Amino acid sequence: MSSKPSWSPSSWTSKPVAQDVEYPDRKGLSKVLSKLETLPPLVTPSEIERLRYQLSLVQRNEAFLLHAGDCAESFDACTNENISAKIGLILSFSLILIWGARLPIVRIGRIAGQYAKPRSSRTEQVGDREVLSFRGDNVNGLDIDDRTPDPERLLRAYFHSATTLNHVRGLLTSGFASLHQPRDWSLSHVRSPSLRNEFESIVEDLTDALDFSRTIGQDAGASFELGGAKSTVGEVDFYTSHEGLMLDYEQALTRECPVPKSVSSVPNEKAYYNTSAHFLWIGDRTRQLDGGHVEYFRGIKNPIGIKVGPSMQSDELVRLLDIVNSEKVPGRVTLITRYGAGKVENYLLEHIKAVKLSLHPVVWICDPMHGNTLTSNTGLKTRHFRTIINELTSCIRIHSECDSRLGGVSLEFTGELNDEGFSVTECLGGSMELSEEQLGLRYQSFCDPRLNFEQSLDVAFLISKHYKDERRGKQKGMEKDVLFTELSGKPSS
Ligand code: PEP
Ligand code: CO
């Protein structure tokens, strides 16, 4: 048997690195990285292992994964209002899912570190100037005079991640997530009466269920919510994630730690954990088998995601799984498929078949956002709600036809509101029927367009209803366009 090539947190440096950032200030970079190496971890091995375990439950259809947040966070958006709105939306979304699917939800935010972006082109033309592309707040600035990669930004990314995570932890341990007060997550600005009514009726049913269980002397809230994972209603599990793009940064936050006893069969076992986030994913542009990112990812013990787009070959996918999960550990790999509504039919089936044959345990989730981006007539980047739902619907159906199961969704959404309490206008359609003319009203993303609060709840209700019907035996699998037809009465073209 061939042994595994040796690995270290820096072994990736001997491989070609896609989307690499060139820092003119090399000395500054080394100084920053040395500092990062001494800073405390942001997350712990026991939290990381707990997530891996919960993902193994997703894989066994005993839980559902919600992976969601911004395309890219920015330092300026690190405010109480934005973070609370994001967590509130994730909690509202998961509550709706729990109600329909009656499964615990594993929540992973694209938060507390999602500051770097891959770009299709190294430079961009702005007027008559060719400037370096904006690569995210931890590399350079959006302002065209601030495009030189600045290593100090990596430190700022660390501290903004720490502040964000601290606030999230604070919110979740001080009653914000309490299932007894879900109204606090603020639906006040949702103008659609039907959305509000539906949400409020779930909340009412849930409150009744909790009252009932209290009356009979058993607070069933926790086990209902989390599969018994936590003992108090009001505390929920929440995990952080970002794309593991900036390998210098990831390496500096990679620490050799004792493996928690609960998951270790060997005395004094140690392993390398990336302590900058619970979950990291490899982007569709950086998943080359012989590249630096795959090399780095194969050695960390965190659960990881792999974006799978139309250019992924089936045998390549299996080889990739062999590399990053040679021991076939359940919960270790989540495949995040993002083909585009028009392409999912051509690719997903083959990918599922190949992975099944390989006997690799994986969680499959659908990212219906990244294959469905288009430029509107006004020149703004957008996505149509209908196309998003179409890809999701096809995914659920194809999995069901292959005796596989969609384990979750990966969405770009935001609960952000402007000063007057209006949500963003970046994606078209949904129950609010956002039109092209309205896109410019409150377009705030400096990266990909995100679903707003109402559009996100629309998605949550559609998924929730599907699983509720399935639970009640109304439908096995899902006919094409059922989700969409239910929402608007007409299938998309
Ligand atoms: C993303 O998730 O923001 C992203 C860039 O995705 P992908 O790598 O799938 O294009
Ligand atoms: Co994106």
Automatic annotation (TrEMBL):
This is Phospho-2-dehydro-3-deoxyheptonate aldolase. Its EC number is 2.5.1.54. Pathway: Metabolic intermediate biosynthesis; chorismate biosynthesis; chorismate from D-erythrose 4-phosphate and phosphoenolpyruvate: step 1/7. Pfam families: DAHP_synth_2. Keywords: Amino-acid biosynthesis, Aromatic amino acid biosynthesis, Transferase. SUPFAM superfamilies: Aldolase. It comes from the Eukaryota. Belongs to the class-II DAHP synthase family. The keyword Hydrolase does not apply. It comes from Lentinula lateritia. InterPro entries: Aldolase_TIM, DAHP_synth_2. It catalyses: D-erythrose 4-phosphate + phosphoenolpyruvate + H2O = 7-phospho-2-dehydro-3-deoxy-D-arabino-heptonate + phosphate. The keyword Transferase applies.
